[in-house]
Design a protein that fits this description.
Radius of gyration: 14 Å
Distance between the termini: 44 Å
Number of helices: 1
Strand content: 35-45%
Helix content: 10-25%
Length: 106
């Protein structure tokens, strides 16, 4: 059995992010479906605090030593300088990262 069959999401990537307090993905996700990230993420917060907001306006806050799952349809705000390790479907997340880079070019 191929390893990418287990999730049905294709190849997964693992990433480390260091995020400064105040980072808000809302303007960076403008133009994506629903103006939100539509990629699921699984991860662990090494330090700091991060809050997600879904399409219905529901908030979820994760802090140091928390495991998290962010389903498709979310924005992220960094409440306190954070470091996270995150696992995502590689191809879909690469498209979101590319979109964010384009949005920062102004």
């Amino acid at each position: 059995m191929r390893p990418d069959w287990a999730s049905g999401l294709g190849k997964m990537s693992g990433e480390y992010f260091s995020l400064a307090a105040g980072v808000d993905t809302t303007p960076l996700f403008h133009g994506l479906e629903g103006n939100q990230c539509q990629v699921p993420h699984w991860g662990f917060v090494l330090k700091g605090q991060v809050t997600t907001t879904d399409a219905d306006g529901a908030h979820e806050t994760v802090s140091a030593n928390d495991l998290f799952y962010w389903p498709p349809g979310h924005n992220v705000k960094v409440d306190a300088d954070a470091e996270i390790i995150m696992f995502s479907p590689q191809h879909a997340h690469s498209n979101v990262i590319d979109h964010m880079i384009e949005m920062t070019k102004g």
